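job 3f2a | input accepted
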Amino acid sequence: MTTTTAAASSGSTDTATAGKPERLTGMAQVREAEAYHTASVMHDAIFEADRLCSAIYRAVTDAYLTRVREDQAEPEARTAAETADSPEVRGQAAEALRCLYAAQTYLQSLTSYEPPF
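job 3f2a | predicted structure (117 res):
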């Protein structure tokens, strides 16, 4: 046991370099950064799609539940179908679809990487 302690304290760097991985350089470092940033943008696109879909869900659900509770319904209030067909909801749905398409594209590029050159 004292032999191991003496060898480690004698300034040997074999154990220090063996435990520490070599730093990535060149294209390997570029690929690491690209994978990280692609995954980050993919996550952001999915998060935005989820946020937009949640807003659509809330708007349609509120309209539906207002009609179900007829005592709370305003005469000029939109139905759930009218709300879903409104320009605001259609715009949110189109944007959610673009976000989902972006997320799909980033996911595909992340999982089927080909070097740029």
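job 3f2a | Residues 26-68 form the longest helix (43 residues).
job 3f2a | closed
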